Amino acid sequence: xxxxxxxxxxxQPITLTFGVVILGGSYTQNYDTDSGTFEPDRALTPLILxxxxxxxxxxxxxxxxxxxxxxxxxxxxxxxxSNTGTWKSGTDYVVDxxxxxxxxxxxxxxxxxxIKLTAQYYDNNRARINQLIWEHDLYNKSVTSRKFExxxxxxxxxxxxxxxxxxxxxxxxxFSNNGADVPDDQVVYEWQVLINNTFMSIxxxxxxxxxxxxxxxxxxxxxxxxxxLCVRCVAYHKKYPTEKxxxxxRMVRYYGQYEDSWLWEAGQLKFIDTAYAQGRVVINRKxxxxxxxxxxYFDIExxxxxxxxxxxxxxxxxxxxxxxRNMFPVDAAHxxxxxxxxxEKTELQALTINGDTAAxxxxxIVLSVPKIDRDV
Length: 376
Description:
mainly beta
């Protein structure tokens, strides 16, 4: 008799580096308040951006490389204003037939513009559509003898590794003049949060991730409450309150690469006196190895099929599943099997009942739920 063991083909996730290539110009402009001129002047040197996508496929190296030509549904969103009013498509900026964005408009001094690029990339081997987003601010500041700057080492994207179990993450800002740090008592710092495409004041009652520092140069956040969050620091010198500077930081809940499998603990081979079959789900990270307490990070459900027409039936929630002898196949012609489903959990969220936040002993009740719906 031939015995067999089933296998499956597993592709490692591809790595996508999505962004733009600057073909000309700069994100930042200076406005000379004495001469009334822009540097650079986009009427002469426009900002030209081309979409860029680099794919790294460890399983199929031939699919790796520059894949900008395979992007579909490419779309640009541009917001900004000049001294004459809000920027208009076709006049202040255009998108050419090669999906390149060309900005001719000079940004109004001491304001911030914004560029957002979205596109899709279809991975044929995994039959998956990858949604891609890139964003960047445009700046224009007045040029005088003073040269203010706001630095933030954490600006841009911050991946918060869920397995590090961090309870505090710091975002740091520093205001400087001509390269020298300005004393804190001379600077106003304010951290804001992006909600519905608008930066708003941080409220501790609403923003459970907030730990402290909203009006200081260091903002403390709790990664356990963060799924996808964008904050920015607004800073200015007290003597020059109209000259504001901005730095944005985006933080995302990050799982990285992992693989789940099944480990039989008992009953894979069934004899006349085998009382039960049992096993557990094992989740491994590529470099770090097996994840301990995976239920903390994943919603895990175990199923069982005795190959006798019952199909997969729910057995347990959690890593371990067990069935007793009365569920075994009726004869040796059938091959039973365990199945499992692993879903990543969201950040901690406030529990709401009929639109109201639930609380106990004046403390908000929070929970973490699967990021995707159950599909079995």
